[in-house]
């Protein structure tokens, strides 16, 4: 690295220069650039959405995040607030989770919410997030996973479970009625046998 500036020596104009060996710095910069390239390749291939945002805007999203919500990276970074991808029903909850992280009240959060895609479709998402400092300012970084299929399967299983419980309850009531009727009939038979025996005794005597 060469620094040069004009100067005057012995009443003559000249140029003063200095040379500094920056090989180590260049090597470190090259390694850092290679690391950043590897990191970007890794997160871009991830099946998990990755994000970084400040309170009111996104700073970074990976490809999977864009795919989950149906937006381009440019649309997200220039036109969306973090809560714009959350369904109206869960926005208040999401805003509270953001606030407690930015305030430093908690180190990280893990929760489930309903998301809203660009085309209006409702999806279920699993969110992990934590607070960190970027250029001296608090930001939130984390991951988003589309769990719509899993959630729908759980809801369907719960529905079948409830229907099965209702069927079991109904069958139990019917069975109890049958048992009660059979018990009453057996008791009636016992009474009849006693009456017949008593009548027989009276006739024999």
> What gap, in angstroms, lies between the N and C termini?
136 Å
Total strand count, please?
7
Shape: rod-shaped
Question: Element order, helices and strands?
Answer: EEHEEHHHEEEH
Q: Into which percentage range does the β-strand content fall?
A: 25-35%
Helicity level, as a percent range? 40-55%
Number of helices: 5
Classification by helices and strands:
alpha+beta
Low-confidence stretches: none
Largest sheet: 5 strands, antiparallel
Query: How big is the Rg?
Result: 38 Å
Instruction: Give the mean pLDDT.
Output: 83
- What's the arrangement of strands in the largest beta sheet? 4-3-7-6-5
Overview of the structural elements:
This protein starts with a strand and ends with a helix. With 205 residues, it is an alpha+beta fold. A 5-stranded antiparallel sheet has the order 4-3-7-6-5, with helices on both faces. It has helices at residues 23-44, 63-69, 73-79, 91-102, 148-204; strands at 2-9, 12-19, 49-53, 58-61, 108-116, 122-134, 137-146. The protein is built from 5 helices and 7 strands. The radius of gyration is 38 Å and the shape is rod-shaped. A hairpin with a 5-residue loop joins strand 5 (108-116) and strand 6 (122-134). The model has no long low-confidence stretch (mean pLDDT 83). 51% of the residues lie in helices and 28% in strands. 14% of the residues are buried.
């Amino acid at each position: 690295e060469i620094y040069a500036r004009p100067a005057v020596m012995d009443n003559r104009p000249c140029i003063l220069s200095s040379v500094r060996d920056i090989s180590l710095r260049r090597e470190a910069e090259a390694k850092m650039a290679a690391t950043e390239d590897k990191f970007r390749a890794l997160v871009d291939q991830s099946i998990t959405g990755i994000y970084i945002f400040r309170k009111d805007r996104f700073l970074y999203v990976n490809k999977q995040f864009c795919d989950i919500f149906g937006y381009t990276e440019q649309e997200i970074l220039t036109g969306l607030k973090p809560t714009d991808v959350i369904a109206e029903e869960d926005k208040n909850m999401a805003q509270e989770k953001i606030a407690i992280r930015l305030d430093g009240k908690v180190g990280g959060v893990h929760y489930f919410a309903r998301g809203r895609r660009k085309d209006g479709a409702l999806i279920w998402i699993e969110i992990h997030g934590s607070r960190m400092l970027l250029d001296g300012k608090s930001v939130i970084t984390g991951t988003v996973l589309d769990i719509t299929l899993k959630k729908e399967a759980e809801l369907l299983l719960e529905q079948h479970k409830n229907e099965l419980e209702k069927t079991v309850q109904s069958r139990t009531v019917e069975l109890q009625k049958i048992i009660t009727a059979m018990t009453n009939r057996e008791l009636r038979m016992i009474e009849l046998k006693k009456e017949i025996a008593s009548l027989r005794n009276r006739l024999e005597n």
